[in-house]
Specification:
The chain is an alpha/beta fold. The protein is 22% helix and 30% strand. The chain has 6 helices and 17 strands. The strands form 3 sheets. The chain has a 6-stranded antiparallel beta barrel with strand order 12-15-14-13-16-17. A 5-stranded parallel sheet has the order 3-2-1-4-7. A hairpin with a 4-residue loop joins strand 10 and strand 11. Helix 1 packs across helix 6 and helix 3 packs antiparallel against helix 4. The chain is globular. The N and C termini lie far apart (49 Å).
């Protein structure tokens, strides 16, 4: 009897190809997609690709349904509006208003896609042993340690292990990533050769298209932009509009080479400085999730990635109670509170935390 598998369709090319590969391999598939009640009237730049939240949800739901119909597999839309609002949007908005820069995709994968969506599928009576998505990552079981491990996808430009680094052992034990061994170019080719309905669909952004500012209160307070010595250089439009390392949008005449180096939520203040002020030798991370082992018991050499688009950098990882210290071999630019920091040993994800 074929293994029963849930496949999450987003309405995009990647998840469609993942489903097609599994269907061809003989799995007994049931397709699901999540409705998160994104605002269809949310403003977006006309040229921007839509994200997973914002304009375009109706189109994505319809495209997911067309893919399932084309492949001849059952299709269910799961209402996860409340879960997404509570577990992703609230965290995102709260973080920014506190001067932090949370990554919504990290929370979404752990709490919603591999959390609330699986639970909703079970409550709907769907039968499955595992769940597949279109992420570019790999998993395997290591008998010696008795643990499920997460690895980078082979396509370094598309690798999404960073976004999956907070999955726990139970979630990883049921996770299937058919695209982990493929490049994006190969996936596009498969989509074309199999005449999938979304083969020519442009790639979407990870989150809100055209800007996330409409998620925040319209009456957000302006405040001072100061230099490192407290001198007021200008006025910002609300701290949720800025992140560490940002230059664009400061609107400081005659100060073209200044960047946000600190956000002080308590006083509603942005501190700016020159580019060299963005470099940090170390960071502290909390909210730790360990994948390769139960916990960090000794100092360990790792490569640490401080944002999804950054290259992993050599560092020393140190246990510090419920937190971890990361001391880089070379100073890193733009260490940002609220972002995830992910620890690697080669291609293998050791664990992750949230930068304090």
């Amino acid at each position: 009897m074929a293994e029963k598998m849930l496949v999450a369709l987003s309405g995009g090319v990647d998840s469609a190809v993942a489903a097609a590969i599994l269907k061809k391999a003989g799995y007994d598939l049931t397709a699901v997609t999540m409705k998160i009640c994104a605002s269809e009237t949310q403003e977006a730049k006309p040229s921007a690709r839509h994200g997973c939240y914002g304009p375009g949800e109706t189109e994505d739901l319809e495209d997911a349904g067309r893919v399932a119909e084309y492949l001849g597999i059952p299709f269910h839309i799961l209402d996860l509006c409340e879960a997404y609002k509570t577990e992703v949007l609230s965290e995102f908005i709260s973080g920014y208003t506190q001067g932090r820069t949370p990554n919504p995709c990290v929370y979404c994968n752990q709490r919603v896609k591999f959390g609330a969506m699986v639970e909703a599928a079970e409550q709907a009576g769907l039968e499955f042993d595992s769940m597949a998505t279109g992420h570019y990552a790999r998993t395997y079981f290591e008998p010696a340690g008795g643990r499920y491990l997460l690895q980078k996808g082979v396509d370094s430009k598309k690798d999404q292990s960073y976004f999956l680094s907070f999955l726990n052992q139970r979630q990883l034990s049921r996770a299937v990533f058919p695209l982990g061994a493929f490049t994006k170019q190969q996936v596009r080719q498969i989509a074309s050769e199999m005449f999938l309905p979304v083969s020519d669909k442009p790639e979407s952004q990870d989150f809100v298209s055209g800007g996330y500012h409409s998620l925040f209160p319209e009456d957000e307070r302006p405040g001072p932009i100061t230099d490192g010595k407290g001198k007021v250089l200008g006025i910002h439009k609300g701290i949720s509009r800025y992140t560490i390392g940002q230059h664009k949008g400061l609107e400081l005449p005659g100060q073209e080479k200044l960047y946000v180096i600190k956000i002080i939520a308590e006083t509603n203040t942005l501190v700016v400085g020159e580019e060299e002020a963005l470099f940090r030798n170390e960071l502290i991370a909390s909210g730790l999730n360990w994948i390769a082992f139960d916990g960090l018991t000794k100092s360990t050499r790792v490569e640490a990635r401080i944002r999804s688009g950054a290259s992993p950098a050599p560092a020393l990882l140190e246990p510090r109670g419920n937190e971890a210290g990361v001391i880089f071999d070379q100073p890193q630019k733009g260490v940002t509170p609220g972002q995830a920091v992910v620890f690697y040993d080669g291609d293998t994800v050791l664990g992750a935390g949230i930068i304090n």
